[in-house]
Write a structure and sequence with these properties.
Order of helices and strands: HHHHHHHHHH
Structural class: mainly alpha
Helix content: over 70%
Distance between the termini: 122 Å
Number of strands: 0
Shape: rod-shaped
Largest sheet: none
Length: 287
């Protein structure tokens, strides 16, 4: 006889017990036979219960054949079945024949029951395989989904790392540029200081040698300064409009051309010019 696993055994036993319950077999008889494993002996004992043998008679028959070979068990149960049926009716030829017919019918039921068992087992196995296939598909889908999510995370992290690197490079370049500008400013301020000292000395010498230099007509000087300012700055393409406006404002504020040229440098911004102008005036005031 085919060996079944635990799940298949439980499915067969439940199927048989449901059939006996539907056939109104007593609870005592069903409880007595429930622990038995699926086999032909169990099925014949169910037939005794189905035909009305009390639970104690079924127990006595079961105990009598326990431990014997399968074919011996079935033969013993059949004898008890025939004896019970003969006692149940009368011992005449017609009834005996009828009992034999019932016995044959019972054997047919047993065979049909075997077919039903096979169907139950087949359906059960198919269900298990279907569930296993569904679980495998779900596992594969979940794996693919997680791999896609992880790839998206890796891609986003790569973008973040790239932007972070570019930001650090930009900050480094800005810092380097600021250092260069600061260095140039220091050099320019030092040079302006040197030029200013040299110019002052020259002015003192010129003052001594040419006392009449500042006696020139003021209108002529102003006109010459304006012309020089226009040629030197306003029409000079090296200066931007914003720089020209600022230098014009310096002239309007009373700064001389000699002072303006200290910070009128095309390569620096207007804010930087303003800072140089402020530093220059503070140095002049301090002196």
């Amino acid at each position: 006889m085919k060996e079944y696993n635990e799940s298949e055994i439980n499915a067969i036993k439940k199927y048989q017990d449901d059939i006996m319950a539907n056939l109104n077999v007593s609870d005592a008889a069903r409880k007595l036979l429930q622990p038995l494993p699926p086999c032909h002996a169990r099925e014949y004992l169910y037939m005794l219960a189905f035909n009305g043998m009390p639970a104690d008679g079924i127990k006595r028959t079961k105990d009598a054949v326990t431990g014997q070979k399968a074919d011996v068990q079935i033969a013993g149960i059949k004898r008890e079945y025939s004896s019970f049926m003969k006692k149940l009716f009368t011992d005449n030829a017609d009834l005996s024949k009828k009992i034999d017919q019932i016995h044959a019918s019972a054997s047919s039921v047993v065979e049909q029951n075997k077919e039903y068992q096979s169907l139950v087992i087949a359906n059960f196995q198919a269900t298990v395989k279907s569930l296993e296939a569904s679980a495998a598909n779900f596992k594969e889908s979940y794996h693919l989904m997680m791999e896609e999510k992880n790839q998206q995370i890796r891609d986003k992290q790569a973008i973040i790392d790239d932007l972070t690197k570019k930001l650090e490079e930009t900050e480094q370049e800005m810092e380097t540029t600021i250092q260069k500008i600061s260095k140039k400013n220091e050099e320019l301020l030092r040079k302006l200081g040197e030029d200013d000292g040299s110019n002052r000395k020259k002015q003192e010498v010129n003052t001594k040698k040419k006392k009449g230099f500042f006696s020139r007509n003021k209108e002529e000087v102003a006109e010459n300064e304006v012309d020089h300012f226009i040629k030197q700055y306003l029409t000079n393409s090296e200066f931007q409009e914003e720089q020209k406006d600022y230098l014009m404002k310096c002239l309007e504020d009373g700064d001389s051309l000699e002072d303006i040229k200290k910070w009128a440098i095309p390569s620096i911004s207007v804010p930087m010019m303003e800072r140089l102008r402020k530093v220059y005036k503070e140095k002049i005031c301090d002196k």
